[in-house]
Fold:
Amino acid sequence: MKSLLLATLSLCFVVNVVALTPHVCHLVPCKIQPAGGAGLTTMLGTVQDGDNLRFITDQRAWNVDNPKTLEDHEGHYVRVRAHVYPNKDSIQTRKDDIK
Structure:
């Protein structure tokens, strides 16, 4: 009886972990990106003004390939949908996906 209860609890735990895993990648950029990068990802961070406009997340700082889309948001904490290019440490945002 104890082994049946243990097996049932283990199965419930595994199902919960598997069910929650895909949602983690929508909060922060995933470490595994498709070849070439260009995956559209939702990111939270601060727009940093300076010589080059940068997007700062909890994990790292990103160069912005098209800084005009973020010009009005310097110093703000925003959510953006961006194409991520980890090999170049850069992102490309779309003006309509910034909140």
